[in-house]
């Protein structure tokens, strides 16, 4: 690293004159300044700064996955950057409580001056959602319309253009689909896996049928759930059935990617899968953290507004609650647990394959 030529000043480097002059309460324009408006401005600005940092990390991750091959060293850096995103998200979720020190009356003392400004207009938040994989078709119905309608034409064009780029979800799907261990010479893992799941499901059926403590109604209910699980297993092992399930939105990952992710999760202790498994864990955590943020934000909104509508014109808490449940991205990594087998019944990998897993993953 070269030595710096010019002395650097703390305040100049951080452009503090601009940063600290950027809190301009609207309430001043209409009379007395509302004390809590400064907190409201600062907290939003801090969120936007952290969104910027998250996007900085995310774009670096996307660049790696755009390559046709991902080296282990690069994957290690990817996992490191995703971990940083997770830690920032935890901070973002904690921060909501600072805003909750503001009472609803304090908020109402300046809220109407802000109409029609709204979190709907946070471009960075929308970029984050889209880049992770929340494209229009996956949003809840009202959000499909609202997410562009409050924006300027250039902003709308920018988000539409971004929707045409591959998201992290899509790139990870491609990467998983390229995993070379799904069919291994004469060792057909999925055949063995299918037999193991049948044995496990039959054992579960027997437990339900012989459980004296269940009423007949409870027994029928549990057997129906078991049948549903068996159908999902069947779809997992049959490409055509899987395509049908994809159209219902129950899964989003392609068939190959789903099998690869499942294989990685089942054999996560194999050295070749270590980083891939960490990657899946981090993406799961990012989805969970984002969902927790939505939930905490929705709760805070209910506390501030009750059932009032939002400044951006949505139904407020009701709208946000529904996005919390539905605007998810990596849910397949959560639901995949349905398909995990206990170690005791998991097919043993032949030594020749275990040796290969010690070295290579692309
Ligand atoms: C008193 C505090 C807050 C209230 C009452 C509030 C209220 C709302 C409401 C009602 C919406 C739905 C859209 C609308 O109709 O306007 C919304 C959306 C949003 N808010 Fe807040 N908010 C608050 C604080 C924050 C903070 C601190 C952030 C941090 C960046 C934030 C970020 C967002 C984002 C990104 C959306 C869009 C969410 C989506 O479309 O799924 N809000 N907010």
Topology:
Elements: H1 10-13, H2 16-20, H3 37-65, H4 72-99, H5 104-111, H6 123-132, H7 141-149, H8 153-163, H9 168-177, H10 189-209, H11 216-236, H12 239-248, H13 255-266, H14 274-305, H15 317-326, H16 331-335, H17 351-357
Bound molecules: protoporphyrin IX containing FE (HEM).
Residues 43-44, 47, 99, 107, 118-120, 122, 125, 297, 301, 304-305, 310-314, 316, 319-320, 323 line the site of protoporphyrin IX containing FE.
In short:
With 362 residues, the chain is mainly α.
Model description:
The protein is mainly alpha-helical. The chain has a single domain, classed as Methane Monooxygenase Hydroxylase, Chain G, domain 1 (Up-down Bundle), CATH 1.20.58.480. Helices cover 64% and strands 0% of the residues. Helix 3 runs parallel beside helix 9, helix 9 crosses helix 13 and helix 10 packs antiparallel against helix 11. The model has no long low-confidence stretch (mean pLDDT 92). It binds protoporphyrin IX containing FE. The site of protoporphyrin IX containing FE has 23 residues, from helix 3, helix 14 and helix 15.
């Amino acid at each position: 690293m070269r030595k710096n030529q010019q002395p650097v000043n703390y305040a100049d480097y951080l452009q503090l004159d601009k940063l600290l002059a950027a809190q301009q309460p609207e309430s001043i324009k209409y009379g007395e300044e509302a004390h809590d408006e400064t907190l409201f401005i600062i907290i939003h600005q801090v969120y936007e700064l952290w969104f910027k940092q998250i996007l900085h990390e995310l774009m670096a991750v996307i660049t790696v996955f755009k390559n046709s091959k991902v080296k282990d060293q690069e994957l290690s850096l990817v996992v490191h950057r995703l971990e940083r995103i997770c830690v920032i998200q935890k901070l973002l979720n904690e921060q909501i409580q600072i805003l909750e020190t503001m009472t609803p009356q304090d908020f109402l003392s300046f809220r109407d001056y802000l109409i029609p400004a709204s979190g709907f207009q946070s471009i960075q938040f929308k970029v984050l959602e889209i880049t992770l994989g929340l494209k229009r078709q996956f949003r809840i119905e009202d959000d499909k319309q609202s997410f562009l309608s409050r924006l300027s034409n250039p902003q709308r064009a920018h988000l539409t253009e971004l929707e045409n780029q591959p998201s992290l979800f899509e790139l990870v799907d491609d990467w998983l689909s390229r995993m070379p261990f799904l069919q291994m010479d004469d060792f057909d893992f999925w055949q063995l896996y299918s037999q193991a799941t049948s044995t496990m499901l039959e054992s579960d059926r027997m437990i339900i049928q012989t459980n004296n403590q269940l009423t007949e109604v409870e027994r029928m209910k549990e057997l129906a759930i078991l049948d549903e699980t068996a159908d999902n297993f069947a779809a997992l092992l049959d490409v055509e059935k899987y395509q049908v399930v994809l159209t219902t939105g129950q899964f989003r990952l392609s068939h190959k990617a789903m099998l690869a992710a499942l294989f990685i999760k089942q054999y996560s202790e194999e050295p070749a899968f270590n980083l891939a498994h960490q990657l899946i864990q981090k993406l799961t955590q990012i989805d969970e953290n984002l969902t927790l943020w939505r939930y905490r934000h929705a709760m805070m909104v209910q506390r501030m507004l009750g059932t009032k509508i939002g400044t951006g014109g949505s139904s407020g808490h009701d709208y946000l609650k529904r996005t919390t449940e539905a605007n998810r991205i990596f849910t397949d990594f959560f639901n995949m647990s349905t398909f995990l087998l206990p170690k005791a019944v998991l097919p043993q990998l032949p030594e020749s394959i275990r040796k290969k897993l010690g070295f290579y993953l692309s």
